[in-house]
Amino acid sequence: MTSPATSSATSTSTYSAALRRLYFIRFAFAIVWAALMFATSTMPGPFLTVLLIVYPLFDAAAVLWQLRADPDSQRSKAAEWVNVIVSSLVAIALGVASTISITAALAVWGAWAIGAGIPQLIAAIRNRRSGGQVPQMLSGGISVFAGSAFLLQGLQGAGNIAGVAGYAILGAIFFLVSAIRLSMVLRKKA
């Protein structure tokens, strides 16, 4: 017969493994997306609009996947749901803003980075027992600061949105570090 402690440890390990896979996927996506963004950031048009819409939609989908994989049905998941809702709304707002101007899209991106960074920080603090969450805590905090800078640049009329590609690369690095850290934690548990 399996004890509740053993069952809890198994579900925590399963969740940690799921997070590790998700973080590797998010790393790869962000690197590819950033390369495309660097190549097209000064050329407003349909491709840039699609790129800007895809990133927050991917973020929302990844958080939904994380929610589905989380075995802890007792804790509040409000921060994650806020992230999903905000990211979905931002995808729409970026689609509209990018057809107006790059500066409008930059301001929307900045507001989103702030709005997504806060729940990411909260979720990482709550998931800290799964391991590998310190980079996610840092990423959430940095997102708030970077978002503030993007918002100010957009409001001041900056015409280049390439900085968001750098932001995505930094996020990708944090996801990679978290995935590697989770791999080490899982190896120790095995």
Largest sheet: none
Q: Gyration radius, to the nearest Å? A: 17 Å
Count of runs of 4 or more consecutive helical residues: 6
Helix content: over 70%
Total number of domains: 1
Q: What amount of the residues lies in strands?
A: under 5%
Mean pLDDT: 86
Which spans have pLDDT < 50 for at least 5 consecutive residues?
A: none
Judged by helices, strands and strand pairing, the structural class is mainly alpha
Task: Give the CA-CA distance, first to last residue.
Answer: 20 Å
Protein model, in words:
By secondary structure, the protein is an all-alpha fold. It contains 6 helices and no strands. The chain has one domain. The chain is elongated.
Keywords:
single chain, 190 residues, mainly alpha, 83% helix, elongated
In short:
The protein is mainly alpha-helical and 190 residues long. The chain has helices at residues 4-40, 46-69, 78-100, 102-126, 134-155, 163-189.
Q: What secondary-structure arrangement, pairings included, does this model have?
A:
Layout (H helix, E strand, L loop, with lengths): L3 H37 L5 H24 L8 H23 L1 H25 L7 H22 L7 H27 L1
Helix pairs in contact: 1-2, 1-6, 2-3, 3-4, 4-5, 5-6
